[in-house]
Amino acid sequence: MEISLGQWILILILVVVPLLYEWSTTFKYFCKMAFYNSYILFLAVIVIPMCAVRGRNVENMKLIRFMLLHVKYLYGVKIEVRGSENFNIKEPYVIVSNHQSSLDLLGMMEVLPDRCVPIAKKELMYMGTVGLACWLGGIIFINRKKTDDAINVMSEAAQTMLSEDVRVWVFPEGTRNHSGSMLPFKRGAFHLAVQAQVPVIPVVISSYRDFYSKKERRFTTGRCTVEILPPMPTKGLSADDVPALTERVRQAMLVAFDGLSVELGAPQ
Predict the structure, then answer these.
(1) Please, are residues 100 and 205 in contact by the beta-carbon 8 Å criterion?
(2) Contact at 8 Å (CB) between 253 and 204?
(3) What is the maximum span of the chain, computed from C-alpha positions, in angstroms?
(4) Mean pLDDT, to the nearest integer, of 190-209?
């Protein structure tokens, strides 16, 4: 029985790929990230019809969260949550969190409160099935390149929070940060909280360095901690108080992040 060229290539792939996956951390990293991104797209395809029944609605975030909660098990990532009681507030609030990589999605879904939607860059809306699922989930999109548009969206978000009892999740660093610390915070989230006169709740996701590093092309199993800090009130504050509030929240988050890094043994 003759084996065709295509069959030889298939045999070679079936032999070489598993060996490379076991022997090369770089190859394993790219395989895991490719599967992560592809799987999120696949889950979006499944959740879109279910969300479409309601149309664009913040309640769809419950479905999206349910569909994503199991992903951490596929990667052997154990997530510990601390301070959940700090979300036990009946009024709306603004959550601010550090932003390390696309894996932040796992930590976010682990603790996402009811009626809470992230504020995301507008480009996400055009990412195929993921963008449509995000839109149906009520995610708020801003154009970071147009300051006036972003300000208007934040102003509308403040009104929506109060009128529809919605919480929002913001990454105030504005972009992913792989440095092992935190970038300076942009003030949009804090202007939003002050304008709506609602508390700011900081959420700190510990460093991934013991199991994930984009620079080193490394992605193994590991653990991380999501710590929800006590709410910081904004009642009575004005726009003039935003810079001090921003720095106060960032410092509290830095202290928590450094403490978690030491606890988990992650390199500083």
Answers:
(1) yes
(2) yes
(3) 83
(4) 94
Provide the total of helices (H) and of strands (E) in the chain, helices listed first. Answer: 9, 9
Rounded to whole angstroms, how far apart are CA atoms 96 and 250?
A: 9
Residue with tokens 């098990």: 73
In which element (H, E) is residue 150 found?
helix 147-164
Residue 106 in tokens: 């796992």
The answer to whether the beta carbons of residues 87 and 110 sit under 8 Å apart is no
Q: Write the pLDDT tens digit of every residue in 60-105.
A: 999 999 999 999 999 999 999 999 999 999 899 999 999 999 999 9
Q: What is the DSSP pairing of strand 218-219 with strand 222-228?
A: unpaired
Helix (H, G, I), strand (E, B) or coil at 141: strand
Q: Are 171 and 97 in contact (CB under 8 A)?
A: yes
Task: Evaluate if pTM is beyond 0.70.
Answer: yes
Per residue in 213-244, pLDDT (tens digit) is 998 999 999 999 999 999 999 999 999 999 99
Q: Which residues have C-beta within 8 Å of that of residue 248, sequence separation ≥ 6?
A: 232
> Would you give the distance in Å from CA 134 to the centre of its chain?
12
Question: How is residue 126 annotated by DSSP?
Answer: G
Question: Which of 63, 97, 61, 48 minimizes the C-alpha distance to 201?
Answer: 97
